[in-house]
Amino acid sequence: MPEAGEVESIPSLLGDTLKRQVFAVQDYALLVMQCVANVFTPPQYWGDTLAQMDQIGVGSLPIVVITSFFIGGVMVLQTAGQFQRFGETALTGDAVSLSLVRELGPAITALLVAGRNASGIASELGSMVVTEQVDAMRALGTDPIRKLVTPRMIAMVTMLPLLVAVADFVGLVGGFIVAYFTLRLGAVQFWTRAVDALEGGDLVQGMAKPVIFGFLISTIACFQGLRVKGGTQGVGRATTSAVVISSVMVLVFDFFLAKVLLFIFGKAG
Amino acid sequence: MTYLSRPAPEEGIPKTVPGEPLIAFKDVRIGFDEGDVLQGISFEVWPGETKVLLGESGSGKTLIMKMAAGLLRPDAGRIWVMGHELSEMKEQDLLDFRRHVGFVFQEGALFDSLTVAENVAFRLREESVAEDEIETRVREALRFVELEATVDQYPGELSGGMRRRVSIARALVDRPPLVFYDSPTAGLDPVTSQTIIMLVLRRRDLQGVTSLLATHRVQDAFGLAAFRLEPSSGRLLRVNFDGQSPVQGGAKQLAAPAAPATVVASAPTNVLVLRGGRVYFEGHAAEMLHSSDEYLKKFLASAE
């Protein structure tokens, strides 16, 4: 340890930082393993899980509906000009459908849910840590990971695919309304193309991604909340970290999942 | 059957080993980034004893309490509680163990999204106790701390002293044989502090509970050492510091008679003073009172 006034060397600082990151990843891995193991062993907190499903699923519905409606609409606005140049406006339904179901639906819904719920989870658990409520839970013989983390993980993993399904549908509705008024595209033409463009693999891809994203968002948010140090400032830092890290991880995993799923369903470029 | 007369559940309770202390610390050391906070800590707490940890703020009292409850692991040394060596237990076993001890946190640490009744009932619900029994036991526990009227209130609506009393009710609802009180009077006015110490004293004298109490107030230690509640009459007796003999003319009647009780023959209260991360003094409150040590005198002077 350096004396007062002594400046630590850069390699030493880098080493310490690296060490802290490695320990953080190790702690996260342990939390994830325990959280998953809890799903298969009693007791289960179904009441807490249902409450979290309501908070995450029903609570996020308004922003998901509004956002996906306008995303579907803006996609048509942006692509309409290109399709008109080639006289292929009928393909609008295909473009909206494929991009929403495969990519934009899962990714944007996950980012919205990360922004809304990762912050909420991290600040709630962080506040519980700084006010010793988590320690009190342990002192009363209750496992905080089982009581606080596992219900949030189950709720997020089950609710996010449902929110993505709603987002895909509402996005298509938004796309159709804009296509109807700007391209004069008929309902039958739009919806037939939109549905026909999709294959089983697209739906699997669209529903598999949110399961992984939900797992990442919930566990990262809980991890950041439970490792809060330094009072209310620490809670603020944990909240920011939870949103930033989970959003970045969603996009990173989106790339790799897309690559793997496209390979599995034979659409890899 | 009332709360106070109901026998404690036998099944699964960690057993006290006859002839051995309930709590034993042996050369315990713990530190953080800035260095060791506690080192060479060794002491024992015997069944029925109330051990008061005295020390200035930051002297490591809370760390000792948390280590004794298995909430923190020491860097070195060994800790036995109720015949179990905590440093060798896995977290899952520690969770089971903690169901049989009570812990009162410094600021209460009540669950702020739950009502007072839900807070007190937390452990009972975890143990899947029947709802009608939960209601009875929660009301009895809250009656014990004289807060029965607050059942539907949230912790945020209560004063600091009331929150501590709810925390005590939560810790005692399952009748644990061992209770840890972490600075239960810190930051409270003298009258509320006295109420809290009376609750600790009633638990000790009516139920024979072993306690470890951390405080920086000498008054708390001497309050516990100098008084005893007579279970049959509810009278508060001034006793010698060994807890045995009532002092002539030193009794006064409590305003309300105490609840039905079991008799406790004596309630030894000993003091352990922490200084500089080590045990500075350990002994009877009377020994501390008559000590010529300058630091202890300074400590005692703070109570005057």
Features:
heterodimer, A: 269 residues, 8 helices, B: alpha/beta, Rossmann fold, 2 domains, six-stranded mixed sheet, four-stranded antiparallel sheet, 9 helices, globular
Query: Helical segment tally of chain B?
Result: 9
Compute the CA-based radius of gyration of chain A: 22 Å
Q: What share of the residues of chain A does DSSP label as strand, in percent?
A: under 5%
Sketch the major β-sheet of chain A.
none
Helix/strand order of chain B, N-terminal first: EEEHEEHEHHHEHEHEEEEEHH
Which two chains share the most extensive interface? A-B, 12 and 23 residues
The H-level CATH homologous superfamily of the largest domain in chain B, spelled out, is P-loop containing nucleotide triphosphate hydrolases
Question: Given the C-alpha coordinates, what overall shape of chain A results?
Answer: elongated
The appropriate CATH architecture of the largest domain in chain B is 3-Layer(aba) Sandwich
Number of strands of chain B: 13
Q: What are the SSEs and their pairings?
A:
The complex is a heterodimer of chains A (269) and B (304).
Chain A (H helix, E strand, L loop, with lengths): L9 H30 L6 H40 L6 H39 L2 H7 L4 H39 L4 H10 L3 H27 L4 H34 L5
Helix pairs in contact in A: 1-5, 2-3, 2-5, 3-5, 3-6, 3-7, 3-8, 5-6, 5-7, 7-8
Chain B lengths: L22 E10 L2 E11 L4 E6 L5 H8 L7 E6 L2 E2 L5 H8 L2 E4 L11 H11 L4 H14 L15 H13 L5 E5 L7 H18 L2 E6 L2 H9 E4 L4 E5 L6 E8 L15 E7 L2 E7 H5 L4 H8 L3
Parallel strand pairs in B: 3-8, 3-12, 6-7, 7-8
Antiparallel strand pairs in B: 1-2, 1-4, 4-5, 9-10, 10-11, 12-13
Helix pairs in contact in B: 3-4, 3-5, 4-5, 5-6
Give an account of the 3D structure.
The complex is a heterodimer of chains A (269) and B (304). Chain A is mainly α and 269 residues long. Chain A has one domain (46-264). Chain A contains eight helices and no strands. Chain A has helices at residues 10-39, 46-85, 92-130, 133-139, 144-182, 187-196, 200-226, 231-264. The longest helix of chain A is centred in the N-terminal third of the chain and has 40 residues, at 46-85. By secondary structure, chain B is of the alpha/beta class. Chain B has two domains: 1-98 and 198-304, P-loop containing nucleotide triphosphate hydrolases (Rossmann fold, 3-Layer(aba) Sandwich), CATH 3.40.50; 101-175, no CATH class. Chain B has nine helices and 13 strands. Chain B has helices at 61-68, 91-98, 116-126, 131-144, 160-172, 190-207, 218-226, 285-289, 294-301; strands at 23-32, 35-45, 50-55, 76-81, 84-85, 101-104, 178-182, 210-215, 227-230, 235-239, 246-253, 269-275, 278-284. A six-stranded mixed β-sheet of chain B has the order 6-7-8-3-12-13, sandwiched between helices. A four-stranded antiparallel β-sheet of chain B has the order 2-1-4-5, with helices on one face. In chain B, helix 3 (116-126) crosses helix 4, helix 3 (116-126) packs parallel to helix 5 (160-172) and helix 5 packs parallel to helix 6 (190-207). Chain B starts with 22 loop residues before the first strand and ends with a helix. Mean pLDDT of chain B is 84; it is low at 1-11 and 245-266. Chain A binds chain B through residues 131-133, 135-143, and chain B through 66, 69, 71, 91-92, 95-99, 101, 103, 105-107, 109-112, 122-123, 126, 170.
